[in-house]
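User: I'll paste a sequence; please echo it back and then give the predicted structure.

Assistant: Echoing your sequence first, then the prediction.
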Amino acid sequence: MFQPAPAGIVDRAAEEREQGDLLEKALADPRTRVLLIHGDSAPRATDGLGWLSPDDVAELVGSPVDWAFLGRDDEGSAVLLAAARGRERPIPDLGDGWASLRETATSLPAPIADLFTVAVSLGRFLGERFCSRCGTQSPLATSGWSRSCPECGAEHFPRTDPAVIVATESRDGERLLLGANAVWKGRMYSCFAGFVEAGESLETAVHRELLEEAGVRLKDVRYVASQPWPYPRSLMLGYRATAAAEHEVRPDGTEIIDVRWFTRDEIRSGLAGRADFGLPGPVSIAHRLIAEWAQEGRATDEVGGA
């Protein structure tokens, strides 16, 4: 049933989206590959994700789907998203089951993991069928990348909410400050994060979040990297910073129930699964920020012991 994965890195080919018959032509082309999405999951195959042909989708999926153009692979074949509607998964007896983005992103080739992330993000937008201004049902446009309201003329696009996430270290660089969210009931510690508020710069959001959640003032704030995170529609912007006064730290008691300074040895044990606390999984940018801090210390230790 499953088709080969798209060849190479997929080009979004955004310039093609305005073609009114783009999806129609792609659906009629037997070379087209389709990623079926339900929520944040796709069909699982032994070698990764289970790619379908347009005919497979028509034959196997009983519930309606929304279509979008994801791009073209390096052989020029179209790659489409089919976002299944409804609460029930469209193929309940699928042989290898379903794979969620959280579970499988790190085990997939980078181009496929990136495409999976785009598909989950876009799939959430495809499910928002009504105009947020007047409530009228609005048809899809630009090959699934926008909606145009026939009543008030408003155009709607996939929404991305910026959020900051910060790894805060001690002034001597030998300890890392992490917090336990109330949702995790103290079982896991991670970097501090929060959405950027209206009219706020990223840097202001970094300072505000740490002061609100951990009571700590920062200095030496520096950007590291970003990660799209479709839970539900975020762009995580990762930072490193240094605590100005380490003794000031305290949890806010509502969202964050505990804050704790960790040594590099403790972080390494946590990353290896040998500690009495959990750390974020490797799919998240929080894991990257924490692991890179721990690795920096290992490199220093090796140089010092040479």
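The chain has seven helices and 15 strands. The radius of gyration is 22 Å.
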